[in-house]
Write a structure and sequence with these properties.
The protein is 74% helix and 0% strand. With 136 residues, the protein is an all-alpha fold.
Length: 136
């Protein structure tokens, strides 16, 4: 029995962009936490602060700017669909533009995670976060 069942790409594309971003946010947060836990001897409170600096909308928007050129056309479409979704809330420490970019990045990650394309999900996370995590 697998940990979870993947869904088809067609079914994933029918999900709300906010649902894809919801899943992608969790994927990114777990990835950053795991990386920091394995590479740092800091206590949990410090790890939380480092994670928050990396997973906030401003940082995610900067990460997206750095990788947009390597996204496939399908990934760009998922990103655009999420970015263009009507927003009912904005993070308290970021701009609307940053929030929309961050949601787009999270939606791409959520799409790959839900469809079981873990290799591409990890590739995007590795590419985007290596620099950001080392800065913190």
């Amino acid at each position: 029995m697998e940990f979870f069942e993947k869904i088809s790409a067609d079914k994933a594309k029918l999900l709300s962009p906010t649902v894809l971003a919801f899943v992608g946010d969790a994927v990114m947060t777990l990835y950053v936490r795991e990386h920091l836990a394995k590479s740092s001897d800091a206590k949990a409170g410090k790890l939380h602060v480092l994670t928050a600096k990396t997973v906030c909308s401003k940082a995610q928007a900067e990460l997206l700017d750095g990788i947009f050129g390597v996204l496939s056309e399908e990934e760009r479409e998922i990103f655009r669909r999420s970015r263009n979704t009507k927003t009912h809330s904005v993070s308290k420490n970021g701009t609307l533009a940053d929030y929309k970019k961050a949601s787009g990045l999270e939606a791409v990650l959520g799409y790959h995670y839900l469809t079981g394309n873990f290799a591409r999900c990890k590739e995007i996370l590795d590419f985007t976060l290596k620099k950001k995590i080392s800065e913190n």
